[in-house]
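Fold this sequence, please.
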Amino acid sequence: MPPLDRQIRSRDIQAEIVDQKQLENREEQKAEEEKRRREAEQKRQREAEEKRQAEQNRLAEEKRAAEEKRKAEEAKVAEQKRKVEEARAAEERRKVEEKRIAEEKRIVEEKRKAEEARVAEEKRKAEEARKRQEAEQRRLAEEEQRRKEEELKARLQAEENQRRLKSLRDEYILAIREKIQRHWLKPPGSEKMPVCEVKVQQGPGGIILGVSIGSCGGTAIYRDSIEKAVRRADPLPPPKDPAIFERNLTLLFNPNE
């Protein structure tokens, strides 16, 4: 092979070698680039994964924080609700207690008023009883006073009547004695003429129904003169008051009057 051909051939080989080397270099470069690309992609994917994981972690954290916040809020709301419920229950208990105290106070007040009313009623009844008793005592005293006054009046009236009747009777007896005395005829020869008791039975209008001589110490003639005088006095004078009329009279005949 001529030298030129060898040279050309050598150049061609060298060129092929260079090309091959360049090809290899390109392949290596391409592989390197592919490796870098893959690494970059892996890195990107890793970063993306890390970013995604970080985002997930962030979201999870936010979710956890939100959940904790929600729970805290729910706990706060529950605590507030509990406090409100406790406050409401306490308010209800307070109201119930106030109502109980008010009811007890009302009952005590009613009992006090009832007791005051009872005491007042008893006092009123006692006062009424006292007034009735005083009125009854006054009435009894007034009745007693009237009774005494009426008794006194009646006694005085009776005494006055008795005095009047006695006076009328004395007048009545005196009138009878005087009439008998006027009709008496002194018996002759009579020496002893004592006072004699004369019993006369008379009817309405002074009609003489019977005459008898009671205690008398004189003679029979003297006693007979008295009896005759009584019979001559028929009818006897009537009394001024019929109340003093006596069917049976006992008179004393005194011849010296």
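Helices lie at 3-182, 220-232. The two ends are 248 Å apart (CA to CA).
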